[in-house]
């Protein structure tokens, strides 16, 4: 080994590169163009509703394994998200309702900045459908934040 | 090696498995749900128009290297499609116009049977944009067939 | 729709393209070079043994869900292979032993023609480890065929 | 929107998740087992040499576009790495030789901690082959650091 001109540095994360990796190369261009078209053609509220309907369909086609506990429900959700490289979720009961924190959802990387106000609708629809199926009758999932650039968002299940 | 109970057989293709591989696992579920939602909510003609606008955007964001020949134009198009695992295209001048044959477009695998009448719109928009940029002033790309289950379709550039 | 110059044709599979899709683009070049280096540096028998040891490690790190039946064992194996896009396996009891038929293993696409005599060693090691863990004491997995170009191979579990 | 219980936070990177995404799911388990087998069976120096030979083969099969400048050479290298999701490289002339800094090489994610002393050998071989082809007669590429957990390493081209 030659002398080291630069001391070894701690691994440095690169947000832009990490974001890019979150969305597989095959669909980056298509989804980016689709997101731009949605943002140009429709009000954000309408796209959010469309996304929610897509999320409901997705969750219906990916039903959760039965579970009696919050830990089990969270594990069942992550057993869907994980193998798809869709990040992961933490859920926790709080006084204000069920707190839902999803990290590393690839929709942010896919749609880019055009999605700021509507992509979280997909998660809203998916979690609504899963909680409905788990028997959360009448409670509603609402976003607390949008998706940030790394695909994290917070939602809450509570009284409508 | 033990005795062979079965003689080696010629490799057997499996259309369903090959189709599945065409669309990366990360986006299969999302795109399938999106396609179903489009098909349920809008007439096929409207979805085809939406797809065409997305295709125009995609091609604008993926401009072709300059080329003076049909062979060069085809190579420039395949230099976009290839690294994305979006199949490949053959173009040829015919008396009826420019014949465009795309094979293995992953939209068929992504959207499944719901897409039969509209997914080819994306290719229509993308090729229209690319031919416009190459100076095919006034000529129009029209689909001759829809996308079959393996993502092949035929289109034609000609007088509108 | 304009008149159709060519009647729609049945979807046509393309073995070379289907093979290419079996191995993700990120690792195609690396694994191809690795396979060539192995083939150049070592006798095929030694590479097959190395592959078998790698297969044993892989299966140890991907243990199967418990199962009492052959159907259950096959389902547990496919629950490992499926989400990795590693094809699928059919197992069946026969007078000559347990017949193991794996289809669409991506090692053939990864290593190309250099792998003809040794890549099946990975499957041999993996199935050996899984059958050992399932209690197939003393029986040995042996390849009946190598991996063909689409990643299919036959193996058999029987008396050594 | 309901009241926000938690103020929006800045996007938080997660090194472990970012590392996992660097290596496509299809090959994570295979490459991890392969790396463990190499580390168990051979001295790190021998594995590094094997990796270097694989790197030479890879670079030979992915020749660079011709270039007269360092900027052009760097762009040609990144035109190989980029579409494969193999990170990127910066090269710069320094008094001590050509400084080569590669970031986000997926070998670290693929091989995990087992690779600390040898995986950089692949980059050494690849850059050696590319610089040889570009006419860097007699100069040698040597690693200055190993690959860190996010796939960054520094190498240098200089007098042997």
UniProtKB/TrEMBL annotation, chains A, B, C, D:
Organism per entry: Oryzisolibacter propanilivorax
Can you say what this protein is called?
Cellulose synthase subunit D
Give the InterPro entries listed for this entry: BcsD_bac, Cellsynth_D_sf
Q: Which GO terms describe its biological process?
A: cellulose biosynthetic process
């Amino acid at each position: 080994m030659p002398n080291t001109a630069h001391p070894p540095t701690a691994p440095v994360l690169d947000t832009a590169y990490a974001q890019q990796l979150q969305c597989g190369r095959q669909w980056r261009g298509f989804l980016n163009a689709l997101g731009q078209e949605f943002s140009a053609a429709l009000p954000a509220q309408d796209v959010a509703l469309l996304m929610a309907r897509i999320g409901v369909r997705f969750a219906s086609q990916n039903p959760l394994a039965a579970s009696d506990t919050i830990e089990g429900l969270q594990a069942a959700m992550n057993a869907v998200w994980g193998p798809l490289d869709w990040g992961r979720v933490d859920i926790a009961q709080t006084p204000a309702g069920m707190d839902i924190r999803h990290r590393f959802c690839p929709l942010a990387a896919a749609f880019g900045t055009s999605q700021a106000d509507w992509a979280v609708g997909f998660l809203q629809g998916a979690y609504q459908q899963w909680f409905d199926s788990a028997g959360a009758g009448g409670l509603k999932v609402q976003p607390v934040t949008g998706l940030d650039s790394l695909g994290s968002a917070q939602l809450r299940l509570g009284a409508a």
